[in-house]
UniProtKB/TrEMBL annotation:
Annotated organism of origin: Menidia menidia (Atlantic silverside)
Protein name: Probable imidazolonepropionase
Reactions mediated catalytically: 4-imidazolone-5-propanoate + H2O = N-formimidoyl-L-glutamate
Cofactor field: Fe(3+)
Family according to the record: Belongs to the metallo-dependent hydrolases superfamily. HutI family.
Length: 432
């Protein structure tokens, strides 16, 4: 093949494809048996898409006449798909480090929230912040996630709780998506908390009558791109009835349902999500057996967030029960001022130790299944021909080191590649 390509990554000790049959998600045994090529190579075209992935000698023979803008010799190294972070709240102003001390001293999440901290504290500061300042801090956070291997990330609004600030956040997310290599799935989360001075009914009314109609107008005029709708369905926040009304209205506008459920109390959020055809539900620390069955049947992904249970000392989500029931289990960092973690390798480590997932299950949950939870598993989450050329090259001969070395991703990730372009070269960053 005598053509020009963007990138050849050759001779990797392991190339972890995840799957190779166009699967949109993996469950049960599929998550245990990831597709791995020993001594493999990957070719990415000038359009940023994967053109070939296979044994090194086959690729060498097929592409012997071709030219590449860049060749990476990955001898002794591993190649994996870029990681997908299925749940973050990365747009905000105001420092909440003081709350960490409160929580360490025993305050619960809802106690901090009721004391005027938590989401309300962040809402006050985010309402006051200018879009430029929010974009600067968001870009820094996304760059950090990218260095930790994330190439597709879900980003929520939700620290405005009124039209102007929610729109400001969504526009900032859109701008970051335009200016940075990392891909973004954008989520309207106007029902993240009930604004101070409003009842649940009044807040729901504002979302249904004011916020969503304006969003719809901007989206249909092509001025705003939003992918998902989210609600914090929780006792003392949005009840089941208001959650249903908001999610259904979002779905009617073409948004994917992807919401917070069954986190602090069993709310039957899982059953509601399954009934509404939700693409994903996050948290689920308090999900019931019936909720697990409903999600497995409806093919609604469970986005588990190990950092939340860890920081708030909550019961762990029942990952094993979900996996055994055939639920599509995905992972997210839940990056937010409460859980300040930008690293999906740390999230996978916590999922393995605290939630008893195996390393292959955790990697599937942080790649193909997280991509499915965002409606993007046709382009992301595995190394297959015609998918986006997003990959990690590890300074390690076995891929499991990415999870095993707690907090070691900074040294272990040599390259982060998005659409065939090297966006992070660890040697250069560290000046080695
Ligand atoms: N549970 C609700 N929302 C966030 C926390 C947001 C915050 O505390 O600012 C979460 O997913 O953990
Ligand atoms: Zn969240």
């Amino acid at each position: 093949m005598s053509r020009n390509y963007r990138l050849l990554v050759e001779n990797a000790k392991q190339v972890v494809l995840i799957c190779n049959n166009g699967e949109k998600f993996l469950t049960k045994m599929g998550m245990q048996n990831l597709c791995i090529i020993e001594n493999g190579s990957v070719v990415i075209g000038t359009d940023g898409l994967i053109k070939a992935v296979g044994p090194a000698e086959t690729i060498r023979a097929q592409y012997s006449e071709s030219s590449f803008e860049r060749v990476i010799d990955a001898t002794g190294m591993c190649v994996l798909p870029g990681l997908v972070d299925a749940h973050t709240h990365p747009v905000w102003a105001g420092d909440r480090v003081h709350e960490f001390a409160m929580k360490l001293a025993g305050a619960t999440y809802m106690e901090v929230h009721r004391a005027g901290g938590g989401i309300h504290f962040t809402v006050e500061h985010t309402r006051e912040a200018g879009a430029a300042a929010l974009l600067t801090s968001l870009s820094g956070r996304l760059a950090r996630m990218q260095r930790a291997g994330t190439t597709l990330v879900e980003c929520k609004s939700g620290y405005g709780l009124e039209l102007q600030t929610e729109l400001k956040m969504l526009q900032v997310i859109q701008e970051a998506g335009r200016s940075l290599p990392i891909a973004i799935s954008s989520t309207y989360c106007g029902a993240h908390a009930v604004p101070k001075g409003k009842t649940v009914a009044e807040a729901t009314e504002d979302i249904l009558r004011v916020q969503l109609p304006r969003l719809k107008e901007l989206m249909s005029g092509g001025r705003l791109r939003v992918d998902n709708i989210d609600v914090f369905c929780e006792r003392g926040v949005f009840d089941l009835g208001s959650t249903r009304a908001i999610l259904q209205a979002g779905k009617d506008m073409g948004l994917n349902i992807n919401f917070h459920g069954d986190e602090l109390h069993p709310m039957n959020s899982a059953q509601l999500g399954a009934e509404l055809g939700a693409l994903a539900i996050s948290h689920l620390e308090e999900v019931t057996d019936e909720g697990i069955t409903a999600m497995a049947e409806a093919k609604t992904a469970a986005v588990l967030l190990p950092t939340t249970a860890y920081i708030l000392r909550l019961p762990q989500p029942r990952a094993r029960d979900m996996l055994e029931a055939g639920v599509i289990v995905a992972l997210g960092s839940d990056f937010n001022p409460n859980a300040y973690c930008c690293s999906m390798p740390i999230v996978m480590h916590l999922a393995c130790v605290n939630m008893r997932m195996s390393m292959p299950e955790a990697l599937a949950a942080a790649t193909i299944n997280a991509a499915f939870a965002l409606g993007r598993s046709h382009t992301h989450g595995s190394l297959e021909v015609n998918k986006q050329g997003d990959l990690l090259v590890l300074n390690a001969a076995r891929w499991e080191h990415l999870i095993y070395q707690l907090g070691g991703h900074q040294e272990i990730i040599r390259y982060v590649i998005i659409r065939g372009n090297v966006v992070h070269d660890n040697d250069k960053t560290l000046g080695l």
